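Reply to dn_fold:

You asked what the input looked like. This is it:
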Amino acid sequence: MASMNLRDRCAIITRENIIFRVYGYFHPPEAYVCDVEYAPGNVFRSTDPRALREDGGNVYYKFYGDEGLRFVREGYPQHMVFYEPLQECLVGVQRENIVKALKPEEKLQRLMEKGPTDDLLRALHEVFKKITTASSLGISDFGVFGSLLHGFHHPRFSDLDLIVYGKEKLRQLRETLGALYGEGASSLKNEFESERVIEGKRWRFMNYTLKEFLWHQRRKMVYAIFEDNKARRLIKTEFEPVKDWREVFNEYSLNTRIVKKGWIKAVAKVTNDDDAPFMPSIYRVEPIKVLEGPEVDDVQRIISYVEEFRMQAEEDEEVYVEGNLEQVFSPGKTFHQITLTYGPRYYEQVLKRARM
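and this is what came back:
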């Protein structure tokens, strides 16, 4: 079994062959907070045509929306862990219930050593050849997740779901991709360079328009399209940032309490964006103005568990935010934060640059 030292996007497989993804870096002792990603066909079936995955003769289904949360709550409560700061249970796995753990960086290394055995793996090799030729980055700076990690990938239809490790490697990757995007003959393009990518897209966020989404996603640089001329298709290729081991710090504390204080709309200035690319995304801020909600003047950070709001703003930029105001009581300090996360007002939440 792989080492039990796990971080964001590592995979956990339980006795029931349910596949979880480690979520972030804040975990209770002897457990991991997780997302549930896939379940075998003998315990879960989905009618969503996107959900089916096959591993040889085994059938799995991917969870979408809140399906996974309901699946665990209703049928597998042993895979809920008590999170002391919030005084509530979250989806997670106790170490004693882990049968197998998969590390994305190890799987990528094996895939690259094995060589391309199908169209998707050939495309994977081509993408990395372009990146490593144009930069000092190496295969050890990356990992894979999703279908490639689990052997579910379809050579003709699956995407390239990749990880880049560490803030400095992410900086180099963004610079490299930016240069490649700017080359007219390059087979790597910015996924969000054209408005065509949002045409017909189902959109539910109420305070964040599709055009605003397009603008923010375009400048993140980590969402690409690989023009695979050999397979005659366009392959979505994303690079998800995950912390380097030297950057991992578990902020979880048994003595911390987080109390919800209501809904807030505010404008703030980002003072530090070091953790903005990761999950959760953390933006250190100075409050500028509360537009609606409790009048507080000690909001120190915005913390987002919503993937759309990663890398949304950079240091010294002003942002508009709507979300849950929380008061944090921890040893030695008390402060407020604005949190964007799963909940009944999910699609009202927003974090975006105040002026674009």
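The chain has six helices and 19 strands.
Hope that clears it up.
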